[in-house]
Amino acid sequence: MTDALTTVSAKATTGAAAPEPALVRAVSRWQIVGLAINDVIGSGVYLLPAGAALLLGPASIWAVILAGITVALLVLCFAEAASYFEGTGGGYLYTREAFGEFVGFEVGWMTWLARIASVAALTAGFAQAVSFVWPPAAGGLARVGVVTLLIGSLAWINVIGVKQGARLAAGLAVAKVAPLVVFAAAGLFAVDWSRVAVLELPPLDNLGEAALLLLFAYAGFENTAAPAGEYQNPKRNVPFALLTMIVIVTVLYALVQLVTVGTLPGLAQSESAVAESAALVLGTWAGMMMTIAAMVSIGGNAGNTTLIGPRYLFALAQDGFGPRVLARVHPRYRTPAAAILVQSGIALVLALSGSFVWLAMLSIIARLATYVGTAAAIPLLRRRFGDSPGAWRMPGGLAIPVAALLLCLVFLASTTLANLAAGAAALVVGALLYFARRRG
């Protein structure tokens, strides 16, 4: 099967009709790095310190580092898979090429559902964050206005050009990381090192819940490659961005955990641990800075999902799943405008109604489906594309993909029956949609 997702095919028609517009490769290497960081660092970095401390105590510092190293196994699998392709679709593309259209569709369908739930949840969370500085945003017409303005603005920015969307994402990545770096650097001088000393192992019955918490603090990297059809030199730049991201995020998460554990009494019971710790270390202004940084972080995640999520929908529509209009590229802006507007419209309805909550349960299964599919695809992709120009192979033969698969099984065993049931229901719906595929 050829890589049908590299660009929108330029189908010539009779007479002098112009070819269909194609996606444009406008996103640079460091903008991709910004997208990758923006994908991962969101509200999780502000929720992780208290949650991890509650479950693991001072050992949470080492657990955060260990989780980063462990998630790097999955990141390496995605980096190698990305080096084989230049087209749009990410995990959908990798699993489709390795295992066929049905498996690929199920992965793409599940991932897109998770993206819809993500935009709805993030924008609802953004309105809640705004309410800390503007109380009316917590409800009523003010909340409707905040949610609508955010979703509408992000949709418009991404419709008028992928470069504009990537620039926004890169700018927000800097804006969200900079306050955390300031907090971590200043906080190191205030750490009470007796608080961070690990004297005993954490309770074993907390390990499953802690593993899921830590995994999803690092989750999101799987979406970086989805718009690869609009990246410059994606075979090289996507692996570079993923590997750079995991190093930066792991170091930053570990420093934030260290400072909060070492400076904030009662960390495990805190509802805004990073802001409270910053206020203790630097003063009240720093607490407000971190509150605003949390808003920027949530907005940045929503912006990334508005850029990346529609590329799954676009890729699926190109292969005949869904209305043909979703596979079209805007003739002026050279973006999948219809897919962006459809996803944003659905997300707006869900965010305002609150009916996205049941979709949120799918995020665990959806991500694990993408992780399992990509890791399992590596041996087949190596066999087919390992000698292609620009291909990169991780060291250790099949050791890393096998370890990544075992890791996914551990995470799957830690999920709830409700998550498994939601995932199974979505897969059944996906199967029905697959067999209703548009032909031609």
What does this structure look like?
The chain has 440 residues and is an all-alpha fold. Helices cover 69% and strands 0% of the residues. The protein has helices at residues 29-40, 44-56, 60-82, 91-99, 101-130, 140-159, 162-187, 193-196, 207-218, 234-263, 273-282, 284-318, 337-353, 357-360, 362-385, 399-413, 417-435. Helix 5 packs across helix 15. It starts with 28 loop residues before the first helix and ends in a 5-residue tail after the last helix. Mean pLDDT is 88; it is low at 1-16.
List the helices and strands and how they pair.
Elements: H1 29-40, H2 44-56, H3 60-82, H4 91-99, H5 101-130, H6 140-159, H7 162-187, H8 193-196, H9 207-218, H10 234-263, H11 273-282, H12 284-318, H13 337-353, H14 357-360, H15 362-385, H16 399-413, H17 417-435
Separation, N- and C-terminal Cα atoms: 17 Å
pLDDT < 50 runs, ≥5 residues: 1-16
- Class inferred from helices and paired strands: mainly alpha
Major β-sheet profile: none
Quote the beta fraction: under 5%
Mean of the pLDDT scores? 88
Helix/strand order, N-terminal first: HHHHHHHHHHHHHHHHH
Total helices: the number is: 17
DSSP E strands, number: 0
State Rg: 21 Å
Feature tags:
single chain, 17 helices, about 0% strand, about 450 residues, disordered N terminus, about 70% helix
